[in-house]
Amino acid sequence: MCIAIPGKVLELSEGKAKVDFNGNTVDVNTGLVEPQVGQYVLVHAGCAIEVMEHDKAQELMELFTELEELQ
Question: Which family does it belong to (predicted)?
Answer without folding.
Answer: Belongs to the HupF/HypC family.
